[in-house]
Design a protein that fits this description.
disordered N terminus; binds adenosine-5'-diphosphate; five-stranded parallel beta sheet; 21 helices; six-stranded antiparallel beta sheet; disordered C terminus; Beta-Lactamase; single chain; 46% helix
C-alpha cells in the first residue's frame, strides 16, 4: 500500500466496485476513484464480483446497494460464506440503520449511505484501508515485539512521571505537596497499593511519616517507628534497599500486615535521612530490581526537595535575623543599587534623613532624600573611591553622624552612620579646656623666654650653662609653638573669622612660597608653582588661607629629603578652585592615612625623624571646612604625597550659603 502526497490521493490501490446501477458504477469510477489515483475494477453482479475478488485481488471492495440493485448485501453474504482478503465497504443508495447493522454483522468494514460527497467516499476508503492494514500488521507482528512495545510505553510513562516530579522539585519550595507527589509516583510506578515516606528524627533517631497514600495514609501521623526494630529502620541502618515478598514477610515482626514491601533509603551527602517505601496488602506482586531503581530515583528527588526546603528555610531565617538586626540597630543604614535607587533604608535612616518608608523602595535616591550632606556623599566624583567618609549634621542641629559610604560589588553602595554627637561634645569640651589652659600658659612661657635671654646679659655663662640655656630656649619655643597651634585651632573651630572677602589664591600661594623660600632653598628642593592666567577668586579669610597653604608647604618641605621636588598647582574644576601640593617625600603609610587630619596624630616615621606638633593638618582641615571646601590626600610611602584642596569660588559660596558644612575626608 502506498499513499500519495496530497490528502486522499493514492497511487495504484485497486478498488473493486460491485453492483449498483451502471451509471452509478461509471460515475464512481470516472468522477471520484480514478481522479483520486485508484485503479478501478467493476462487476455488474455478485457472481462476477466474487470472481474478480478472488482472481484479481483488489485492495478494497465497494459493495453498492439499493432497493433496485441489492447486490451489496448479497455480495456481503457471499463473502461471509467464502471470505477474500480485502475489506468491504457497503455503499447504500438509501441509508437505513437496519441495513447498516446487517452489513456490519455480515463483515462489512465500513458503511456509507447517500447522499455523500466524493470526499466522504475517499475518506471512508482511506480509513478502511488504513485500519485493515494496521490490523493485519498487528496480527503478524511477533508477540515479543508487542511486549517490547508495551515495555517501551511503560518506560516512557515512568520517564514522564520522573520528569514531571523533577520539574515540581525545582519549581516549588512548598515541601509537603512535593513529598506527597513523590509517594504517589512511587505507588504508581511500582504498581503498588500504598506507599509511605518516613524521615529520621535526628533528635530521637526514630522514623516518622511525612507523606503516605492508601491505607497507610490513615495511620496516625504521630506514630513513630524505632530505627532499631523495624523494617524501615533496617534500611536506615544499612543504607541499602530492602525488598521482602510474600512468605518471607510473615516471619518478620511488623506493625502492619503486608504481602510485599520495598524500601529504599533517602540519602543526602552519604547520610540516610529517611526511607521511601511501597507495599501491597491485597494482591501479591513481587517488586523487581527495576522498581527499586525507580524508587531510588524518586528517593533522590525527595532528598533534594527536603534539602532545598531546608536551605530555603535557613536562608529565610538568616534574612529575617539580618532584617531584624538592620531594623533595630542604632546606626542609620541606606542601601542603593548600581543606579542609585533605594534598595533598603532602616527605620532610623528614614527618621534621620526624612525618607518615607512606604514609597522609598526602588525610587531614585535624589527623589527620596533631601539632606544635602547625604546627597553630597553619594554624589559620584572622578576619584572613583570604593569607600568615602563624611560627617553629617542632622537637620535638628543637635546631632552629628559619622557616615561611611562603601561600594559593594554587584549590589551598589551602602551608607552606614554612627552617632558621634557625644564625641563631638567631648571634643568641644576638650578644645575649650586646652584653649583655656594654653592661653594661661602663654604668659609664663613668654616670661621664661625673656628671663632666659636676660641670663646672658646678667653675666658670662660657661660652656655647659650656655648649652642648658639653649635647650631651655628650644623646649620653651616648642611648647609655645604647640600652644600657638592649639589657640589657632580653637579660634578656627569656634568660627571667629567671618569677614570673608574675595581672595586670589595665586597671590596667597606666591606669598607662602616666598615667605618660606629660606626653608625650601636650604634643603635644596626644586619648587615650582603652576597657575592659570585667570583664576576665579574664592570667598575667604586671606590670613587663614595663607596659613593653610603654609602648613601644607611646610609639611612638604619637612617630610621630603634634601633635593626633592615640590609642586604647587592651581586650577579650576566646575565651580571650585583646586590647589594641589605634591612632594617626592617619605609618603604616608596606608594605615596612617585616615587619621592624619586628626589632632596630634603623627605617623611613626614622622615621630622618629621630624619635629612637629601633629596639629598642622588639623588646622588645615579646620580652615578648609570653614571655607566649605574639601580636602583629600593621595600618598605612596617612599614616593611622595599629594594634598588636594577644593574651595568653592566666590559666587558658589554665596549661592550655597545655606548649605550645611561638608566635612569629607579620606
Ligand atoms: P606635624 O606637626 O607632625 O607635621 P601635621 O598635622 O602637619 O603634624 O601632620 C600630621 C602627620 O601627617 C605628620 O606627622 C606626618 O606623619 C604626616 N604628614 C603630613 N604631611 C606629610 C607629607 N607631606 N609627607 C609625609 N607625611 C606627611
Amino acid at each position: 500500500m502506498s499513499q500519495g502526497a496530497e490528502g486522499n490521493r493514492v497511487t495504484g490501490e485497486r478498488v473493486l466496485v460491485v453492483g449498483g446501477a451502471p451509471q452509478t458504477r461509471h460515475s464512481l469510477a470516472e468522477s471520484i476513484l480514478q481522479p483520486a489515483g485508484y485503479d478501478v475494477l467493476a462487476a455488474a453482479d455478485v457472481a462476477e464480483g466474487m470472481i474478480l475478488a478472488r482472481e484479481l485481488l483488489p485492495d478494497v471492495i465497494l459493495a453498492c446497494h439499493s432497493a433496485d440493485h441489492p447486490a451489496g448485501i448479497e455480495l456481503l453474504e457471499a463473502l461471509h460464506a467464502a471470505p477474500v482478503d480485502a475489506p468491504v465497504i457497503l455503499v447504500a443508495a438509501e441509508g437505513s440503520e437496519a441495513l447498516a447493522v446487517r452489513a456490519l454483522r455480515l463483515g462489512a468494514h465500513d458503511y456509507l449511505a447517500a447522499p455523500y460527497e466524493s470526499g466522504d467516499l475517499l475518506d471512508t476508503l482511506a480509513r478502511t484501508l488504513r485500519r485493515y492494514w494496521m490490523k493485519r500488521i498487528r496480527a503478524n507482528v511477533p508477540a515479543q515485539l508487542l511486549h517490547a512495545n508495551h515495555q517501551l510505553e511503560q518506560r516512557l510513562r515512568e520517564l514522564n512521571t520522573l520528569v514531571q516530579i523533577g520539574k515540581r522539585i525545582t519549581s516549588r519550595l512548598d515541601l509537603q505537596p512535593v513529598l506527597t507527589r513523590v509517594v504517589e509516583a512511587a505507588v504508581e510506578l511500582a504498581q503498588a497499593e500504598e506507599g509511605t515516606l518516613m524521615l529520621v528524627d535526628q533528635a530521637t533517631g526514630e522514623l516518622y511519616s511525612v507523606a503516605a497514600t492508601g491505607a497507610l495514609g490513615q495511620v496516625d501521623a504521630s506514630l513513630r517507628l524505632p530505627v532499631a526494630d523495624s523494617l524501615a529502620g533496617q534500611v536506615v541502618k544499612t543504607s541499602q534497599p530492602l525488598v521482602i515478598t510474600g512468605e518471607d514477610l510473615r516471619k518478620i515482626k511488623t506493625h502492619y500486615y503486608f504481602r510485599d514491601v520495598a524500601y529504599v533509603p533517602l540519602a543526602f551527602q552519604e547520610t540516610v535521612i529517611g526511607v521511601l517505601g511501597v507495599s501491597n496488602r491485597e494482591k501479591s506482586a513481587a517488586f523487581n530490581p527495576h522498581t527499586l531503581q525507580l524508587l531510588s530515583v524518586l528517593a533522590d528527588f525527595a532528598a533534594i526537595a527536603i534539602e532545598n526546603a531546608r536551605l530555603y528555610d535557613a536562608t529565610a531565617q538568616e534574612r529575617n535575623t539580618l532584617n531584624t538586626i538592620l531594623r533595630d540597630t542604632e546606626a542609620a543604614i541606606v542601601v542603593v543599587d548600581t543606579h542609585d535607587a533605594i534598595l533598603f533604608a532602616n527605620p532610623i535612616a528614614c527618621q534621620s534623613f526624612g525618607i518615607d518608608p512606604q514609597t522609598a523602595q526602588g525610587r531614585p535616591l535624589t527623589e527620596t532624600i533631601t539632606h544635602l550632606q547625604v546627597l553630597d556623599l553619594f554624589a559620584k566624583d572622578a576619584r572613583g573611591e570604593r569607600s568615602r567618609s563624611s560627617e553629617i549634621a542632622l537637620d535638628d542641629g543637635d546631632r552629628v553622624l559619622s557616615a561611611r559610604l562603601t561600594a559593594i560589588d554587584d549590589v551598589g553602595r551602602v551608607l552606614i552612620t554612627q552617632d558621634i554627637t557625644h564625641l563631638k561634645q567631648l571634643d568641644r569640651a576638650k578644645t575649650d579646656f586646652v584653649t583655656a589652659v594654653s592661653h594661661d600658659l602663654r604668659s609664663p612661657l613668654t616670661a621664661i623666654l625673656g628671663y632666659v635671654e636676660l641670663l646672658n646679659r646678667a653675666g658670662p655663662l660657661n660652656e655647659g650653662q650656655q648649652k642648658f640655656v639653649e635647650r631651655i630656649v628650644f623646649s620653651v619655643q616648642s611648647i609655645t609653638a604647640l600652644i600657638n597651634d592649639l589657640l589657632e585651632l580653637g579660634r578656627i573651630e569656634a568660627g571667629f573669622d567671618r569677614d570673608y572677602e574675595p581672595v586670589a589664591m595665586n597671590l596667597v600661594v606666591r606669598y607662602a612660597v616666598e615667605g618660606m623660600r629660606h626653608q625650601w632653598e636650604s634643603k635644596h628642593h626644586d619648587l615650582q608653582v603652576t597657575a592659570p592666567d585667570a583664576l576665579p577668586p574664592v570667598s575667604g579669610y586671606p590670613l587663614r588661607l595663607r596659613q593653610m597653604v603654609n602648613n601644607l608647604l611646610e609639611n612638604a618641605i619637612k617630610y621630603t629629603p634634601d633635593g626633592g621636588q615640590i609642586r604647587l598647582a592651581l586650577g579650576t574644576q566646575s565651580q571650585f578652585v583646586l590647589l594641589t601640593v605634591s612632594d617626592t617625600g617619605i609618603g604616608i603609610p596606608p594605615q596612617d592615612q585616615p587619621y592624619v587630619f586628626d589632632k596630634f596624630y603623627r605617623a611613626d616615621e614622622a615621630i622618629d625623624r621630624f619635629a612637629g606638633t601633629g596639629l598642622g593638618l588639623a588646622i588645615v582641615k579646620g580652615i578648609v571646612d570653614q571655607h566649605k571646601g574639601r580636602i583629600w590626600m593621595d600618598s605612596q610611602p617612599g614616593q611622595g604625597t599629594t594634598f588636594t584642596v577644593m574651595l568653592p569660588t566666590e559666587g558658589v559660596e554665596k549661592r550655597e550659603d545655606k548649605r550645611p558644612e561638608s566635612r569629607e575626608s579620606c
